Each structure stands twice: as C-alpha cells, then as structure tokens.
Amino acid sequence: MKNNIKITVKVVPLEQQTIPFKSQYAFSYTITISNQGEVGAQLLSRHWIIQDETNHIEEVAGEGVIGMQPHLLPGEAFEYTSGSVIKTPTGTMKGEYSMVSDTGEHFNIEIPEFVLSEPYTLQ
C-alpha cells in the first residue's frame, strides 16, 4: 500500500495536575505515527474531537503537532507527547491528521477513538 500510516496511543493520567473539586482531570497521551507505506509523507495538520462524560465536545485544529510537521520516510516513526484537560474523570479523543505524500497526494489518517481515564474508574 502506497500510503500506510499507523497510529498508536498511550494515555497516562496526570495526578499532579488533576483537581477533582475543580472538575479538572488532566491526561498526557503519547502518539506514535509510523509510516508503513512505500512513499514518504509529511504531517501537515491535526484535528481533534475531545468529549467528556457530559457530552461536552471541544474541537482542536491546527498546523502540525507540538509545533512540528514531521516528515516520515518509509519505515520511519515519529513519537510525541501532548496533553488534554477535561471536566470529568473519563472522556474520549479522536481525530485525524492531514498529510501529504512525497508524490504530492494529500490524504487524511484517522486517529481512532481512545479513552482518557483515571486507572481506577474503569474496571
């Protein structure tokens, strides 16, 4: 497959930045973007949909990730860590990255929905 970008996510609750009485629950997430295709590609922008237990939705869009627009040759991976603060102990995030291949083709990669949760809230 020409464009084959794989996304993996690891979520860690940030207990030091979580303040339940202020309805502030903080999480970090580490995302690995792996180019498993045959052509190099550059990440141009991101679009996130963040939802908490009250069904409040926050959308975040912008250029690149953590101030970068990484270029991945076939077989390369890029990993970064960012964070999110929501008003409830659990929530979800999903979205997409907009990319361009070295052949000039623009395409989007879906970021599958993942759960933001304190370890003790899900059994």
> What is the helix content?
under 10%
Low-confidence segments, given as residue ranges, are none
CATH superfamily: ApaG domain
Overall number of structural domains: 1
Terminal Cα span: 38 Å
Find the structural class using helix and strand composition. mainly beta
Count of beta strands: 8
**Broad CATH class:** Mainly Beta
Helical region count?
0
Main sheet properties: 5 strands, antiparallel
Known CATH architecture: Sandwich
How does the overall form come out from the CA principal axes? Answer: elongated
Residue-averaged pLDDT, rounded? Answer: 94
- Secondary-structure element order, as H and E? EEEEEEEE
Strand percent estimate:
over 45%
Radius of gyration over C-alpha positions, nearest whole angstrom: 16 Å
CATH topology: Immunoglobulin-like
Q: What does this protein look like?
A:
The structure is a single chain. This protein has no helices and 8 strands. The chain is mainly beta and 123 residues long. The chain has one domain (5-117): ApaG domain (Immunoglobulin-like, Sandwich). The chain is elongated. The strands form 2 sheets. Strands 3, 4, 5, 7 and 8 form a 5-stranded antiparallel sheet that branches. Strands 1-2-6 form a 3-stranded antiparallel sheet, with no helix packed on it. The protein has strands at 5-13, 25-35, 41-52, 57-63, 71-72, 77-86, 90-101, 106-117.
